[in-house]
Design goal:
single chain; 276 residues; alpha+beta; four-stranded antiparallel beta sheet; 7 helices; binds 2-oxoglutaric acid
Length: 276
């Protein structure tokens, strides 16, 4: 399934701010990733939520390899060029009947990355449909304004700070990103997107990888990233290392350090008690 995007797909990405569906891995591999996710989720580890939310690829060797897999990176190079870093990874999971949702937001507002040669590959490990709370996007919104956001830290919001756009978003203009297991979407860091609760009996599990071109800079301090493809001639980020075994002590410590470094930069001045 390894193929660059066509010129038409690149034009579509530039116009709409996203492209979907893009075939990535086969359904069997997606099912294996889901099984590994389920088993870890049910492991009883008291930090499981956090570990899956922020940079899980630093404790899962299989996810670290997926971040670097040409099946994912080849289409991404059509947009960002040959040299890629993965700045972050995150599971976005909703169980059957899960009230969890993602408020409308633009990633660019929070990540402090410039220029905006930054995109998310959102890989479906389960079917992702309207009924189970697929991602929804506002086409073309990456070309419009950078909206003001507020942090709500609202319960049920799957985003780390419950960030949401401070003005009404016209939901009628939104498109559903429907994916089969193993397919992915690519979306621009400025695109308005979110998702609704899962009202179905089918879980929705997505794994998001945040890719940046190697020349992108982090405002406010140095953070870490994984070299996903090509070479890093810029040294703007501390490079992360592959975990050797699932959730082993070294991988866990490396991940912890990377997250602390990232939080110092991203959460500088944020009041976690704010409920605006
Ligand atoms: O999975 C979702 O519903 C939202 C994902 C998201 O916000 C993101 O990948 O930036």
């Amino acid at each position: 399934m390894t193929a660059p995007l066509t010129d038409q797909q690149v034009a579509q990405y530039n116009r709409d701010g996203y492209i979907s569906p893009v075939p990535a891995i086969d359904a069997e591999r997606a099912a294996n990733f889901k099984a590994e996710y389920d088993s870890f989720r049910n492991s009883g580890d008291p930090e499981v939520g956090d570990l899956l939310r922020s940079k899980p690829h630093l404790i899962f060797p299989s996810l670290f390899d997926l971040v670097r897999d040409p099946a994912i990176t080849e289409p991404v190079t059509s947009i960002l060029g040959p040299n890629l870093l993965a700045w972050g990874t995150s599971f976005f999971a909703k169980n059957a009947g899960d009230p969890g949702y993602v408020s409308w937001h633009q990633d660019a507002n929070y990540w402090g990355l410039e220029p905006h040669e930054v995109l998310t590959a959102w890989i479906a490990f389960s079917p992702s449909r309207r009924e189970n709370g697929c991602m929804r996007v506002v086409p073309g919104s990456h070309l419009g304004e950078a909206f003001e956001h507020r942090d709500t830290f609202a319960e049920g919001n799957l985003l780390s700070r419950g960030q949401e756009i401070a003005v009404e978003v016209d939901e009628n203009s939104a498109a559903d990103i429907c994916l089969e297991p193993g397919e992915m979407s690519l979306h621009h860091v400025g695109l308005v997107h979110g998702s609704d609760p899962n009202t179905s009996t089918i879980p929705r599990i997505g794994f998001a990888i945040r890719y940046i071109a190697t020349h992108v800079r982090q405002h406010g301090g140095r953070t870490t990233a994984t070299l996903a493809r090509g070479v890093d001639e810029f040294d703007h980020f501390d490079l992360e290392t592959r975990p050797v075994a699932l959730n082993d002590t070294t991988g866990r410590a490396n991940r912890k350090r990377a997250i602390e470094q990232q939080h110092k930069v991203l959460y500088a001045g944020v009041d976690r008690n704010a409920t605006a």
